[in-house]
Specification:
about 120 residues, alpha+beta, five-stranded antiparallel sheet, about 20% strand
């Protein structure tokens, strides 16, 4: 009788099954985002634009806003897999939050500083 072996003990000769690749890619893509993080939109009409995370819904979705087209009052619900972390909230200095919340003016300032800092 042949015993089942897990993927780690099998020598595939340089070939890795798709299922194992997908699991490894999923683990790499898991993102832990915090409120205030600056992210880059990768998909949709907002692609290649910078936003700030203003709310976390669950492990799959966040609310993002830029203070211009997407204001704090009407943020965009976005899948985490469709955004990429650019800068952590801890790296951003002088977060002048009003009552612990973001304002559109603060978002505009933070995002413009990130844009000029990248160039």
């Amino acid at each position: 009788m042949i015993a089942k072996a897990d993927a780690d003990t099998i020598n595939f000769g340089g070939f890795m099954p798709k299922k194992i690749k997908k699991i490894e890619e999923k683990e790499k893509k898991e993102k832990k985002l915090n409120i205030g993080d600056i992210v880059l939109a990768l998909a949709g009409r907002d692609s290649e634009r910078l936003f700030a995370v203003v709310g976390i819904i669950d492990e799959n979705y966040v609310y993002i806003a830029d203070g211009r087209s997407r204001t704090v009052d009407s943020p965009k619900k976005k899948k985490i897999r469709h955004i990429e972390l650019v800068k952590n909230a801890g790296d951003i200095k002088n977060l002048n939050l009003k009552d612990g919340k973001f304002t559109n003016a603060v978002l505009k300032k933070i995002i413009s500083e990130c844009k000029t800092g990248d160039k």
